[in-house]
Write a structure and sequence with these properties.
The structure is a single chain. By secondary structure, the chain is an alpha/beta fold. The chain has a single domain (6-174), classed as Flavin prenyltransferase-like (Rossmann fold). The chain is 44% helix and 15% strand. It contains 7 helices and 6 strands. The protein has helices at residues 16-28, 39-47, 53-56, 87-95, 101-111, 127-139, 157-174, and strands at residues 6-10, 33-37, 59-61, 79-85, 116-120, 142-143. Strands 3-2-1-4-5-6 form a 6-stranded parallel sheet, with helices on both faces. β1, α1 (16-28) and β2 (33-37) form a beta-alpha-beta unit. The structure holds flavin mononucleotide. Flavin mononucleotide is lined by residues 11-14, 38, 40-41, 44, 47, 86-89, 121-122.
């Protein structure tokens, strides 16, 4: 087991399976994974039949609990992935609002120079989305679009989702 846990943020963008697969892969690599899920994230998880993820993680932090460890730079998280990441959350992190625990935890990763990987899912992007993503990249985040690839000939939806989830984990471990 790695000494420092990973944070996984789940928002109300489509693609809950990416979060499910990320959790699976991170656990395989010996990470404890703690979750922060937005209110819409929880609704979309249920809608996309992925709520089992809530039973498979080390800990779930309440979205409005600013006393929880992810809210402070004194905690020892290895880094944070947000996948799938909505444009609303991208916008709030870029604006530095820190108005829920997920946004605050991402803000903490940036200020502490810890890996923060965001996997936005939207199509098409408008100019505001693109500007926010550029701002976040310049602030130190890694942006990985939730665009699966096909050249390894995935046979199942899990294998397809792994093409994104694996990339997100690799980027965190590269730090
Ligand atoms: C079924 C469903 C799918 C959605 N898919 C997306 C999406 O792929 N990308 C996105 O940016 N927003 C999507 N939304 C809209 C977000 O959920 C909405 O903007 C919400 O405010 C995001 O809040 P959060 O970032 O706090 O989770 C979706 C909403 C629903 C109900």
């Amino acid at each position: 087991m790695n000494a420092s846990p990973l944070l996984l943020g789940i928002t109300g963008a489509s693609g809950s399976i990416y979060a499910e697969r990320f959790l699976h892969l991170a656990k395989e690599r010996g990470f404890a994974v703690e979750l922060i899920v937005t209110k819409t994230g929880e609704a979309v998880l249920k809608h996309e039949n992925c709520e089992a993820i809530l039973q498979n993680c080390e800990k779930i932090h309440k979205i409005d609990d600013f006393f929880a460890p992810p809210a402070t730079g004194s905690s020892n998280y290895f880094g944070m992935a947000i996948l799938p990441c909505s444009m609303a959350t991208i916008g709030r992190i870029a604006a530095g609002t820190s108005d829920n625990l997920l946004i605050r935890a991402a803000d903490v990763c940036l200020k502490e120079n810890r890996p923060l990987v965001l996997a936005p899912r939207e199509m098409p992007f408008n100019e505001i989305h693109l500007e926010n993503m550029l701002k976040l990249k310049r602030a130190g985040a890694t942006i990985i679009s939730a665009s699966p690839y096909f050249y390894e000939h995935p046979k199942t939806i899990e294998e397809l989702a792994d093409t994104v989830a694996k990339k997100v984990l690799q980027q965190i471990l590269k730090f």
